[in-house]
Amino acid sequence: MIRTFKDLIVWQEAMELVVEIYKITRQFPKSEIYGLSSQMQRAAVSIPSNIAEGNQRNSIPQYLQFVSIARGSLGELETQIMLSHKLEYLDKKTQDKVILQTEKIGRLMGGLMKSLKTKT
């Protein structure tokens, strides 16, 4: 039974992704501390944050809007992960591992959105 956003698997998975992104970006060049590193961290944090905020709203349409924003942040983060690999800040294995996480979260978000849409 889902009582709070903390019970949502998508939120839990997104939180794990945030931790992974922070670990990865610690290894980036210091010149990226206010650049790509910071952008990736903000995009990653935005995902579970928007899921949580939407869950706490009093309407399903607002919840859907916040999950949609989270999905946009997920796309932004995927792009930044691929860019990090192209810039040689991430090796292929790490890129692939994190992209698999983002794809899983994307599928979970899609399921959540579908479920919410049936309730409207």
Walk me through what this model shows.
The chain starts with 8 loop residues before the first helix and ends with a helix. The model has no long low-confidence stretch (mean pLDDT 96). Helix 1 packs antiparallel against helix 2 (36-56). The protein is 77% helix and 0% strand. The relative contact order is 0.16. It has a single domain (5-118), classed as Up-down Bundle (de novo design (two linked rop proteins)), CATH 1.20.1440. It is mostly helical. The chain has 4 helices and no strands.
Estimated radius of gyration: 15 Å
- For CATH, the homologous superfamily is named as 23S rRNA-intervening sequence
Structural class: mainly alpha
Which residues form runs of ≥5 with pLDDT under 50?
A: none
Described by strand count, sense and barrel closure, the largest sheet is:
none
What does the average pLDDT come to?
96
Highest-level CATH class: Mainly Alpha
Helix content: over 70%
Q: Please report the distance between the alpha carbons of the first and last residues.
A: 20 Å
Give a count of the beta strands, DSSP E runs of length 2 or more: 0
Which architecture name does CATH use? Up-down Bundle
Q: What would the principal axes of the Cα set say about the shape?
A: elongated
